[in-house]
Design goal:
8-stranded mixed sheet
Amino acid sequence: MSGSRRALFLATILTGSFLLFLVQPMVARMALPRLGGAPNVWNSAMVVYQALLLGGYAYAHAIGRLPLRRQALIHIGVLLLAGLTLPIGLASLAPPRPGLEALWVPLLFLATIGPVFFAVSAQAPLMQRWFAAQPGAGDPYPLYAASNFGSFAGLVAYPLLLEPLMPLRWQSGLWAAGYALLVVLVMIAGRTLPANASMVAESSVGDADDASPGWQRILMWLALAAVPSGLMLSTTTYLTTDIVATPLLWVIPLGLYLLSFSIAFSERRALACWFKRFAAAFVIVLGAITIMVSANGSVPAALASIALLVVVAIALHSRLYDLRPSPRRLTLFYLVISAGGALGGAITALAAPLVFDWTWEHPLWIVAAALLVPMPAYARWTERAGWSPQRGRIAMAALFAAALFILSALTEVYGTPGWSELAVQFLLAVVVVIGLLLVRWRIAFASILAFAMLSLGGLDAVKQTLAGDRSRSYFGVYTVRDDNRNGLRTLAHGTTLHGVQHRQPERALQPTTYYGPTSGIGLALSEAGGLAPNASVGIVGLGVGTLACYRRPGQTWTFYEIDPAVLAYSRDGTFTFMRRCTPDARIVIGDARLELARAAPASYDLLAIDAFSSDAVPLHLMTDEAMKVYLRALKPGGLLLLHISNRYVDLAPAVAALARANGLTAIERRDVDIERPLSPSAWVALARDPARIAALRAASAKPWAPLEDRGHALWTDDYASILPDFNWSNFL
């Protein structure tokens, strides 16, 4: 094949893959004002993408039996028909009823992007099939590496280039132009196809293995594709729950997952072989460490999870490459890979939240990876040592028993008062060595990894599940704990404290965490804060209901909460702030921005926005359009409070830009010199009337400071980039 023809097919595949994965975060960003930033929104979107990819690959496989020129005509027709839906715009669907988000979100993405995603997803296997039909084409599988590199480039380009530099309407127009270029490239590629069917048949046989693959081989393809896909989404859930729900972080696991295909299917095998050689060691070490450090929600935990994903994805995808069929079976191979990816995604995004009360799917995917990792060269060490099979089995059984004994000791040591970190590391190292000696016996190897994860923190998760202290909804995992030493009951969302209540009856109504008397919201709701005795108060974000006990007789309170699971903790008496202080409060279940837009104008004297889920930033609640919704619901002399406490993002400049754009006076209160169970907090107070802000400052027992306007770009539904606002030092 000439170099120009190879370059044509390479350019066509790269362009299609780039567009395919550029559009994913773009549409997710479009959907933020309607869906919010829950981690499962991205996972639901990924299930739709994987289902559409499966459909595209099935279509490519179905038409693969037709003459090549007819394939080209059909595919060009499909591309042109799908192009009629451009430019991309979010579909108009009625909002979901509470509890139906898991079904509604995929439907929204399907209606928005289904036709073009389906059409573009099919072109990669088709292009490889057409490439293989060219005389002297050679092995087409390395083009799959190029395809995934293009996908990776599209994902990275979005948060680093498109999102910070242009609004969504420009992004949509640019994508439509790229789609037109793709159609032209496919047309040109179609014209190069040989018209003689016999030429195609002869040139399509790339190796001697042309027999139809058996079910065992197909099931292995399916498993090797499903495990990295499921692990990628479970890793995404962790990152977006405890850092920020933004495409910048959504794309990291998916981008690395795609890059793993580029390494695994590359013509140069050195790097892929290196990962295969050491995959077992990395999986058992990183798997144990990930569980050990994940309880802290730390950046090291995130890095360990990402490293584990990279190792598993490259190792298992390399096994896929080793098991690839001849080019004649290429579309079937990719169809099964796509089905495996969709299966892994569906288990993580759809089944797991319904079945599990915690993210149990993550350690289960790690154990599944241990069952599938490539066999290292030293696996048959007993044979190399000249041992008989019986002696080898006895040695294996003894080693397995020793590993269980050590893990039992590790369980007793880990987490106890005065436990030695060095002792834990030593015992873990011994277990790792034993596990690697048993890697040939996959069940034993995976069992040791599972017991190690239980010993290093997983057992606590099991106990909490058995005790019923956790619940899981579409919006996250919630854990209730009783701190008997300090007499506290806490609610955590992921690894972030969501609320605290004193268990002693005489202190049960005292405010805690971010809502203390000296916090911004505490000062605004106090008697000195200027609220009338008959004021109407709106609170967005219920938590455990701590703010309820600032209510004074005669005031009317309304709580907005998106997750019914959170409300259940107040209604069943787990936390009693609401039951004792605002038993007659109005509760509105649903996305606060949509619900406030339906509220009567000028409804509230004070409106507090406190809708963070863990440390994830609800970007759709921080745009200019959202601010106008709040101001519409606020009385002319009313006060707006925004909670902007965050470990990873400095939101003050963005709020200052909102104040500037809407003619508001803004001050901030940072409450830092406090003790547990109070937490450091940052609140911003905004009002149309400067006199209202001046009165609040004058009446407050603690000082407020003017909110500094640093010239930050105004966030809108059409344009918002969180990248400049990261506190990068907190990631270290």
